[in-house]
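User: Quick sanity check before I run a bigger batch. Here is a single chain. Can you write out its predicted 3D structure?
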Amino acid sequence: MSAYNKFLWFNSADNKLKETINAEKGNEGIKIKTIKAQMITLLVVFSLILFGVLSYIFFQQLSYMPEFIQENHLRVVEARADELSKELKGIEDIVEIAANAPVVQEMDLEGVQAYLPHLMVPDKVRNLTISDDDGNAWTTYDAFIDISDQEQFRRIFVYDEYHVLSEPFESPYIEEEIPIMTIAYSVLNQEREKVGLVNAVVSMAFIEEILRNVEMEEGYAFIIDESGKIVSHPNPEIGINNHISEFMPESEKIEEILGNPLGALEHQCNEGEASLSVYTGIDGKPGWKMVMSIPAGVAYAEYHAMLEYILWTFLLGVFLISIFAYFYADTLSKPILALKTVFEGAAAGNLNVEADTSYPNEFGKTGAAFNTMLTQIKNLTFRDPVTELYNQNSFMVELNQTLKKADWEADRHYLLLISVDDFKRIDSISGQGSGDHALKILADRLKNFVMDKELIGRYNGDEMLLYLQSPSEKEFAKRLEKLQKIYYYPVYLKGIQYRLKTSIGIRRMKALPMDIKEQIKAVTVAKQKVKKSGGCGYEFYNKRFEDEILEEQQMEEALFYAIAKNELYLVY
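Assistant: Done. Predicted structure follows.
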């Protein structure tokens, strides 16, 4: 029986009990003669009603969790899609660099043959080919071939494309049963005329490896193109000639995936099992989407376990109260009223209430069970599970409350965003999970660093938010120096010593009222300024930082269209 069905049964039983009591009272079938019996009956009925209402309230409060779970899975698939985009971009950069090499632009056979062995070709690239405008090509495996009938040659010289990133295909010239794709760039001479192309043949094996490394207990990730055709799949039996409809029969769900840049949806697979799929586009390859499909029971296991836990906790509470009422009816009023007050506070949204556990009986146990449950709910809602610090949302709430009570005359108030430079190397060197261990160590150090009325929380990834107070700028400078030393002090993981450098964005906050989100945006901009300057430092927010970012974006967009329209020309 599911948690929801049990909840319906619970309410149904409650209603039937009340109907039975009312009917029997009306017919005088039962005559309650003693105060104890009346109290027991009233307490049992009241407990059923109270716990039923609270069950409904808590189920409603937990209704956000499926969306939160979907967002977590979406972040995972976005990270892998970003990894794939960077891998493809790295290969494209190598091909483009080769296409812009002077010796290649001259299209001299002897020069090209001498140049090819010196190209730094990654393992993902099977071979690199340099061709002239007639299709005469030289390869990195020291062979002369004719590619005039190949797709990338026709697209560049017949359809006048500058850059070609092909769809995966199975080559008849490769013995391995692994699809390949090609990345080609035009070669332009000094007069900006097309004189050839550089083409890389890329094995799809590295994409399959990225998909296999997506972190999930069950399920799989795969890539599709704009028509829903499989581009890459970790299962070697599912090739590039398969379509997503072969394991997602609902056409409207497929259309939703193909029609949106990213999202999450629930659907039925061909075996009839309910599944959750999250998907996102892949930068650098328009039309491609990475999809991660997980059985719904696995994806929502934690959510369902919490519902079960709440349900059984409440049922246990009702049972204990009923037993206690039977034996101690004359002393029930005080603990019942106390529990009622606590439950009503929680029902009103106050998760800081705490039940009294001092009663040496079932009421004490009920209060303890309620407090445990409420603590778990608060931790899920307000605490980061890795560092046990405030998460982003709860930090903002606490900061808002703290600032309302702050002394703006005596102290200066600062918001800091701290990001570790090159944090990914920790997992790369010490293995998966080492980064989380490092964050826990840093969080423990920062807990000892902050003082009363100051706050610390985890923002995103390796980033921490700090709210600090200082009587003067000089004292704040000293604390800032100490903060950098906290990160730089050695962190030992699996026998390896790390000294972490940080990029810190700082905003001095003025008196209320203020927009907390705008303050966080400001320190984010300041932190990005430090990152662009090479990291390992700090910056106080300045409005011109945003202007610089906007100017860079506008310049990048202008250059993009200038290149696309061939508007760049040599002046001097």
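The chain has four domains: 3-63+302-382, 100-206, 216-299, 392-558.

User: Great, the batch can go ahead then.
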